Amino acid sequence: MQRDLAERARQGDHDAFTALVDGSIGRLYAVAFLILRDRDRANDAVQEALVAAWRDIRGLRDPDRIDAWFRRLVVRACYRQARADRRRTIVELRVVPAEPPVSPSHELSILDRDRLERAFARLGPDQRAVLVLHHYLGLPLFEVAETLDIPGGTAKSRLSRAIGAMRAALAADDRTDLAGEGRTA
Question: Taking the model in full, what pTM does it have?
């Protein structure tokens, strides 16, 4: 079914392309959001990727790999978004809730998610992309490499560096928290 839709889309069938997009857009948005960490920028990246997909659909070599091709276009659009964002000034505000947390276990899970989010935000888009594709989507490294259009060894080293950077960011966060409490690490 997917192959048939891809073949028809390659021949200019708008309805076939729309059906392909409808089946993939949720996953593509999830990838873009996890890489960019911003809903609006993720929407922009997906839209840019899908416009490029429609424009270049005739160049699709293997209709069976349309999902990987869509993912590759989304990741590249995310890279362009991230490069454009480096030129913008970001102001971060910390909001303190007025109400106490519901339960201590709930508070810990929120704190853990917040720590991971801050560490993930410190990674570059290349590292976020490889982590998202491998750990969130569960793609094997050879497919991550194919999606990112890089050699397998490069995908493996990027994944290793990304995990190391996450660990370092979490450790730095822990040291900052301890220093804020008046203790040393």
Answer: 0.73
b/e per residue, 161-172, with b = 16+ CB within 10 A? ebeebbeebbee
| Residue 6: C-alpha distances to residues 18, 76, 103 (Å) | 10, 21, 50
77: left (phi over 0), alpha (psi -120 to 50) or beta: alpha
pLDDT tens for 108-150 read: 578 788 888 888 888 888 899 999 999 888 999 999 999 998 9
Q: What is the DSSP string of 49-104?
A: HHHHHHHHGGG-S-GGGHHHHHHHHHHHHHHHHHHHHTTS-----PPPPSSPPS-H
To which H or E segment does residue 28 belong? helix 14-36
Q: Domains (ranges, CATH) in the chain?
A: 1-91 (1.10.1740.10), 94-185 (1.10.10.10)
